Amino acid sequence: MASGPRPVAPERGNVTGAASARDAVNQFMGAVKAEDLQALGAIWGTKNGPARDQMDVKILQERELIMLCYLKHDTYTVLGDAPSLNRDRVFAVEITYGKIRHTGQFAVGPASNGRYYVFSVNNFPEFQDVCGKK
Fold first, then answer.
1. CATH number belonging to domain 21-124
2. pLDDT digits (tens, 9 = 90+) for 21-32
3. Which helix (DSSP H) or strand (DSSP E) does residue 49 occupy?
């Protein structure tokens, strides 16, 4: 059974991003768990909105596949968050995959459309060798 919050389902239609920073982390991790590139492209982004609207589809998919590999998990737990610049937040997230457990940071913030996106994910070096392994 997964620890931490239950992933928040993405909203229907063409709405991207999440209503809150924490929901953005949960939707992002839900997309990774489901290996759903469409959902990942709708919740990963920048201050200008979703990544899928800002980059070539081939580059987008390559980057998403790398994230799916590096962030593959059985469970995750949001350990906490702290304010950052411009209404952004930094979340400490623990990911568990098999016997590997590691904590990293998710930078999340609002875009010009008022929705929240995961801007970056950092400090998960131990997950470099989990692609295709368990």
1. 3.10.450.50
2. 999 999 999 999
3. strand 49-50
